[in-house]
């Protein structure tokens, strides 16, 4: 899959325009504040329903307007084309469209855009909060296991109902029998099911990650793991749920389960976040993102779309060259930004069989040049 074109209206730092992209490497350069990152943000907004910088739409909308619009044309498998669109207003209204028809959920658009991002804060996948890593795992599952969407929704619904029940109990019931909990069995079953699916996915992803990391940074020895959030097997889950009952009631929320789960990066038997430098953490994050994209290709024959902001930042020349070669081997569409114009005399540029170069100035994105195999 790849994006043929992007239309933006009322996106902050961008003028209203159509941008026509190539299926290969799209290099977009311009000064800071010119609008490069805003374009990536617009694509991310359509695929994820939110900005990668904020859960609110307001910071993305032009100050003098009340609504933004993003539309893309997606070239899919068998040369099929899908038109996707999103509008978001300052008052919180979101409208989604697929081929001119209204749809209810962002997931109905996201399935057409298997998006991967590598932003300047990529190291946060290693250093940051567990929610960042859970989101990464679930995004991969969303594309390789369509049933995971309903499973995840069902889990969140039961979790919310159980939490409401716990809040209603009050502290005076803190030491009552957890088996009187009407949501206990349903919650436990869904929790174990979702954690099992995550664990199986990461076991599949592990060899891809290890091979990719070995290619990028053979000096690093890191493996993937999954923390089930305190519930592993049915027998253990029953014991753990019983042990946490009084705390659940006291806090009015469920303390164990997939919402507390975490992808772990293990280096020399210890959490990688305690062992590696920030540059190494970015290599680890890059490796797992590239591995996820390769797994997607080999599992469901779907190519990802990569958004890369500040292309090449924080990686030294040797690691950056290996990263680029690994990325290009995937054959995916890349939309990469930089503050530097493309120097076509550089050796790495010769690796790009299909290259489009764009310049951004005052919010206007203009094509500069392109190369492909037939030129």
Topology:
Blueprint: E1 2-9, E2 17-20, E3 25-30, H1 36-48, E4 67-75, E5 81-89, E6 94-98, E7 101-103, H2 107-110, E8 115-118, H3 124-127, H4 130-144, H5 148-169, H6 184-216, E9 222-227, H7 234-251, E10 262-267, E11 270-271, H8 278-300, E12 305-308, H9 317-329, E13 333-338, E14 355-361, E15 364-371
Parallel strand pairs: 3-13, 3-14, 8-12, 12-13
Antiparallel strand pairs: 1-2, 1-4, 4-5, 5-6, 6-7, 9-10, 10-11, 14-15
Walk me through this protein's architecture.
The protein folds into 2 domains: 187 residues, Rossmann fold (3-Layer(aba) Sandwich), CATH 3.40.50; 179 residues, RecF/RecN/SMC, N-terminal domain (Glutathione S-transferase Yfyf (Class Pi), Chain A, domain 2, Up-down Bundle). Helix content is 39%, strand content 23%. The model has no long low-confidence stretch (mean pLDDT 91). The protein is built from 9 helices and 15 strands. The chain is globular and about 70 Å long. It is α/β, with parallel strands linked by helices. A hairpin with a 4-residue loop joins strand 5 and strand 6. The strands form 3 sheets. A 6-stranded antiparallel sheet has the order 2-1-4-5-6-7, with helices on one face. The longest helix is centred in the middle third of the chain and has 33 residues. Helix 6 packs across helix 8.
Question: How would you briefly describe this protein structure?
Answer:
The chain has 375 residues and is an alpha/beta fold. It has helices at 36-48, 107-110, 124-127, 130-144, 148-169, 184-216, 234-251, 278-300, 317-329; strands at residues 2-9, 17-20, 25-30, 67-75, 81-89, 94-98, 101-103, 115-118, 222-227, 262-267, 270-271, 305-308, 333-338, 355-361, 364-371.
């Amino acid at each position: 899959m790849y994006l043929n074109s992007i239309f933006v209206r009322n996106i902050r730092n961008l003028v209203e325009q159509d941008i026509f992209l190539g299926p290969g490497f799209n290099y977009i350069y311009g000064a800071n504040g010119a609008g490069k990152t805003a374009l990536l943000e617009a694509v991310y907004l359509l695929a994820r329903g939110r900005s990668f910088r904020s859960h609110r739409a307001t910071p993305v909308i032009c100050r003098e307007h009340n609504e933004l619009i993003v539309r893309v044309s997606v070239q899919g498998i068998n040369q099929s084309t899908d038109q996707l669109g999103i509008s978001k207003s300052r008052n919180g209204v979101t409208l989604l469209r697929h081929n001119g028809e209204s749809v209810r959920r962002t997931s109905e658009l996201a399935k057409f855009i298997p998006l991967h991002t590598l932003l300047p804060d990529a190291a946060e996948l290693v250093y940051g909060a567990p929610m960042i890593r859970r989101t990464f795992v679930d995004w991969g599952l969303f594309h390789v296991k369509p049933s995971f969407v309903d499973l995840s929704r069902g889990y969140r619904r039961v979790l919310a109902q159980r939490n409401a029940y716990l809040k209603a109990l009050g502290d005076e019931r803190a030491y009552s029998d957890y088996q009187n909990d009407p949501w206990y069995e349903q919650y436990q079953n869904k929790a174990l099911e979702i954690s099992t699916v995550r664990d199986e996915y990461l076991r599949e992803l592990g060899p891809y990650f290890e091979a990719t990391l070995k290619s990028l940074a053979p000096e690093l020895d890191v493996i993937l793991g999954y923390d089930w959030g305190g519930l592993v097997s049915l027998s253990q889950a029953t014991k753990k749920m019983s042990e946490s009952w009084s705390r659940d009631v006291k806090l009015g929320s469920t303390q164990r389960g997939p919402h507390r789960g975490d992808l772990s990066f293990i280096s020399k038997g210890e959490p990688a976040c305690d062992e590696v430098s920030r540059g190494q953490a970015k290599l680890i994050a890059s490796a797992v993102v590239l591995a996820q994209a390769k797994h997607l290709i080999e599992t469901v024959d779907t190519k990802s779309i990569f958004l890369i902001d500040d292309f090449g930042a924080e990686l030294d020349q040797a690691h950056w060259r290996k990263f680029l070669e690994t990325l290009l081997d995937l054959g995916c569409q890349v939309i990469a930004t930089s503050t530097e114009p493309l120097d076509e005399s550089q050796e790495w540029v010769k690796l790009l069989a299909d290259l489009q170069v764009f310049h951004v100035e005052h919010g206007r994105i203009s094509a500069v040049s392109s190369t492909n195999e037939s030129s």
